[in-house]
């Protein structure tokens, strides 16, 4: 025991040694909260708690993987079982697989990821005669997500609607839910909502699921939403061994229904709770910490916390402004390259953080140009890539062709002569008969009616699917071999070459496919005979990849990390670049328009970014930025002014003649002079 807690300060030690009962650790960034959770797991295991009786919930798969490997390091790898470290979503998938029948679903339900959700949303909006011009599928889903996360059922959504778009969305919400159920599918939000429902309505289920664990720990508790909160309560209320850690200043998922209230109310919920505060920041230099503290002090809604440096001095954070986003990317990458040439740090020590998904593109191409290794984490998820989705759809169709989403996606991908008209005929017949499209595809009369070319294409596709279904079922070949054969059977490489002209695009696309093959291989190796295609598809959908797979490789790979602020939560890097520090980016345009609490959340996001940095922090902005093909002038982020301790109101600055605008700080390198007047 003693050697384990040696590397901890007294407050941390106190938390680790509090072995039972409710425990709250409320502390600022970099104070060792996650470290305490990890050590506590190790400590409990050393004291005889069976690893599998411990559940630790983290926010991202990346965090889960990191925690798993840290625990393994502490307790040694020779144990037979491991603690269950997972995200809310993967925990919920496992619970649903065991009990979803109780809610009237078949156990082999499908999880709809973003792409499939959009396809469905489009169909639903069409079915209820809402034109895309009035409400885009993405706008619809955004609203549905907000309702679901706040626990608003379809029948109440209309009361909650304010704008025209809200009303349209409310009208289609019920249909969307119905369609999901008809397809035996759930979306990401449903994973949590259905589990919440199961645990609250079926006491036997709750008892069984809660009974699997003796200890529950939740990292980043400040970002739990109502549903997650209730799930945690339900799982922990029998034994009360619940340890939650978090920082209200890092609550950044308010837009997804997270309520910082949950962490602030913990002692009320659990009156016997022990509360531990950690005050020493071990991560960042004093120079970085001072500016971070100065920024977050601008938020009105926060609990009082002390954050003290344990690393004195340090390099002053820098702010650089550039002419446009191209120069910004070029100079940032050049800066990294120069430092690396001087052998200061390794690629993995660097992170480039951004707010929006358009931002990384320019950095990626620069990184490729100069030949530095990088990984893009979060943002556009691996799964959302078109080619990955295609392949998954094939696997889905092979696993269960009656499940429509897979089949409909691949029916003419790569193009095989089954045009939209033909698909409509098949779909129409299917709906009319209450059968699956796959069934209709076996009906020769219907198939023939689509014309000779389409008919033969349909028959060939059915044959292809059947061949691979059989291959998957008799397991003579591994899934990996099967997938390789499939790729060549459908000539997917040719399709990629057809779609993409540039060699580097082709390579990147093909590399993503290779990644799927690798995933499948790792999955198969891990599960042995128990490997099931459906399970693999689930895992991939959740991006919940196992040890040797993509995420882990990304971490192990010595590469510069590109990610959003949201994805960076909990992580740390020696050098952090926060790019695009402009109004309408950080703070995001949506939040600028909403103002108030929304701006406070953006400020927390900025704070999260800054507190990722250990040694060096660089912030950059472009004075003009291309949006929808047009170059436009930008305004420096108000947060820069706050960080620099300037009383200037950036809004006022924006309204002054441009020539009088103040720069937010002494930029090490300024090319603003070159800025043209609009
Ligand atoms: P965040 O709020 O960003 O999630 P956190 O509070 O979870 O941060 P950790 O990631 O656990 O903080 O720790 C931050 C860094 O400080 C890590 O590198 C960790 O190893 C180190 N650290 C934490 N506690 C100590 C300690 N007592 N002695 C030395 N290093 C420590
Ligand atoms: Mg942490």
Structure description:
By secondary structure, the protein is an alpha/beta fold. The protein folds into 4 domains: 2-95 and 192-278, Rossmann fold (3-Layer(aba) Sandwich); 110-183, Arc Repressor Mutant, subunit A (Orthogonal Bundle), CATH 1.10.10; 287-381 and 554-666, 3-Layer(aba) Sandwich (Rossmann fold); 383-545, PCRA, domain 4 (Orthogonal Bundle). Helices cover 52% and strands 13% of the residues. It contains 33 helices and 17 strands. Strands 11, 12, 13, 14, 15, 16 and 17 form a 7-stranded mixed β-sheet that branches. The chain has a 6-stranded parallel β-sheet with strand order 3-2-6-7-1-8, with helices on both faces. Helix 4 (61-75) links the parallel strand 2 and strand 3 (84-87). Helix 7 (137-149) packs across helix 9. The longest helix is centred in the last third of the chain and has 25 residues, at 503-527. It is globular, with a radius of gyration of 26 Å. Residues 544-552, 652-662 and 665-678 have low confidence and may be disordered.
What's the story with the biggest beta sheet? 7 strands, mixed
How many individual helices?
33
- Give the overall shape: globular
Distance N to C terminus: 67 Å
**Protein structure class:** alpha/beta
Radius of gyration, in Å, reads 26 Å
Task: List the topology elements.
Blueprint: H1 2-5, H2 10-17, E1 23-26, H3 33-46, E2 54-58, H4 61-75, E3 84-87, H5 88-99, E4 110-112, H6 114-127, H7 137-149, H8 154-160, H9 164-182, E5 185-187, H10 188-201, H11 203-210, E6 215-218, H12 226-236, E7 242-246, H13 261-264, H14 266-269, E8 274-276, E9 280-285, H15 286-296, E10 308-311, E11 318-324, H16 325-341, E12 350-354, H17 360-370, E13 374-377, H18 386-399, H19 404-410, H20 420-433, H21 437-440, H22 444-449, H23 452-474, H24 479-489, H25 492-499, H26 503-527, H27 533-541, H28 550-556, E14 560-564, H29 565-568, E15 573-578, H30 589-594, H31 597-610, E16 613-627, E17 630-633, H32 638-643, H33 650-655
Parallel strand pairs: 1-7, 1-8, 2-3, 2-6, 4-5, 6-7, 9-10, 11-16, 12-14, 12-15, 13-14, 15-16
Antiparallel strand pairs: 16-17
Helix pairs in contact: 2-3, 3-4, 5-10, 6-7, 6-9, 7-9, 8-9, 10-11, 10-12, 15-31, 16-17, 18-19, 18-23, 18-27, 23-24, 24-26
The structure holds adenosine-5'-triphosphate and magnesium ion.
Adenosine-5'-triphosphate (ATP) binds near residues 7, 8, 30, 31 and 570.
């Amino acid at each position: 025991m003693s050697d384990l807690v040696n590397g901890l300060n007294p407050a941390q030690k106190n938390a680790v040694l509090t072995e039972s009962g409710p425990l709250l650790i409320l502390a600022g960034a970099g104070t060792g909260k996650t470290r305490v959770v990890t050590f506590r797991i190790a400590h409990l295991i050393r004291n005889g708690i069976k690893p599998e009786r411990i559940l630790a919930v983290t926010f991202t798969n990346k965090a889960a993987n990191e925690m798993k490997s840290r625990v393994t390091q502490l307790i040694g790898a020779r144990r037979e079982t491991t603690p269950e470290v997972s995200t809310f979503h993967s925990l919920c998938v496992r619970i649903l697989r065991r009990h979803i029948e109780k809610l009237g679903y078949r156990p082999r339900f499908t999880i709809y990821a973003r792409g499939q959700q959009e396809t469905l949303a489009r169909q639903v909006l069409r079915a209820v005669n809402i034109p895309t011009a009035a409400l885009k599928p993405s706008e619809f889903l955004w609203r549905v997500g907000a309702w679901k996360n706040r626990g608003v059922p379809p029948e109440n959504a209309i009361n909650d609607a304010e704008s025209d778009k809200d009303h349209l969305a409310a009208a289609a919400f019920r249909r969307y839910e119905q369609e999901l159920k008809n397809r035996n599918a759930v979306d990401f939000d449903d994973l949590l909502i259905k589990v919440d429902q199961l645990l609250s309505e079926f006491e036997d289920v709750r008892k069984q699921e809660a009974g699997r664990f003796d200890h529950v720990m939740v990292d980043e508790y400040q970002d739990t939403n109502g549903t997650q909160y209730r799930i945690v309560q339900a799982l922990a209320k029998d034994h009360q061994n619940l340890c939650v850690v978090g920082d209200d200043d890092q609550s950044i998922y308010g837009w997804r229904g997270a309520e910082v209230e949950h962490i602030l109310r913990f002692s009320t919920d659990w009156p016997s709770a022990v509360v531990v505060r950690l005050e020493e920041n071990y991560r960042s230099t004093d120079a970085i910490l001072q500016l971070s503290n100065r920024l977050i002090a601008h938020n009105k809604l926060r609990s009082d916390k002390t954050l003290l440096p344990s690393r004195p001095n340090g390099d002053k954070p820098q702010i650089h402004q550039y002419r446009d986003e191209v120069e910004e990317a070029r100079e940032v990458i050049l800066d990294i390259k120069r430092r690396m040439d001087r052998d200061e740090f390794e690629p993995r020590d660097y992170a480039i953080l951004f707010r929006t998904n358009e931002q990384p593109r320019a950095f990626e191409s620069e990184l490729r140009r100069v030949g530095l290794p990088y990984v893009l984490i979060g943002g556009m998820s691996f799964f959302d890539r078109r080619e990955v989705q295609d392949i998954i759809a094939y696997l889905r169709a092979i696993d269960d062709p009656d499940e429509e989403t897979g089949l409909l996606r691949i029916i003419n991908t790569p193009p095989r002569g089954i045009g939209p008209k033909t698909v409509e005929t098949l779909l129409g017949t299917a709906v009319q008969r209450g059968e699956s499209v796959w069934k209709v595809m076996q009906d020769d009369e219907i198939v023939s009616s689509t014309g000779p070319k389409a008919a033969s294409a349909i028959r060939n596709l059915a044959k292809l699917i059947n061949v691979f279904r059989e291959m998957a079922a008799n397991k003579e070949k591994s899934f990996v071999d099967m997938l390789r054969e499939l790729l060549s059977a459908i000539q997917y490489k040719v399709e990629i070459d057809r779609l993409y002209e540039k060699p580097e695009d082709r390579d990147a696309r093909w590399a993503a496919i290779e990644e799927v093959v690798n995933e499948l291989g790792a999955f198969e190796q891990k599960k042995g005979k128990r490997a099931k295609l459906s399970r693999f598809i689930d895992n991939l959908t959740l991006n919940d990849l196992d040890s040797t797979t993509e995420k882990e490789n990304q971490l192990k790979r010595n590469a510069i990390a590109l990610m959003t602020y949201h994805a960076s939560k909990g992580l740390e890097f020696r050098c952090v670049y926060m790019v695009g520090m402009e109004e309408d980016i950080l703070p995001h345009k949506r939040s600028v328009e909403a103002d108030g609490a929304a701006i406070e959340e953006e400020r927390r996001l900025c704070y999260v970014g800054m507190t990722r940095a250990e040694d060096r922090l660089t912030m950059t902005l472009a004075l003009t930025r291309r949006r929808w093909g047009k170059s436009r002038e930008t305004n420096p982020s108000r947060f820069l002014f706050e960080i620099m301790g300037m009383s200037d109101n950036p809004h006022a600055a924006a309204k002054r003649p441009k020539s009088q605008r103040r720069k937010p700080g002494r930029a090490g390198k300024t090319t603003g002079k070159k800025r043209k007047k609009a």
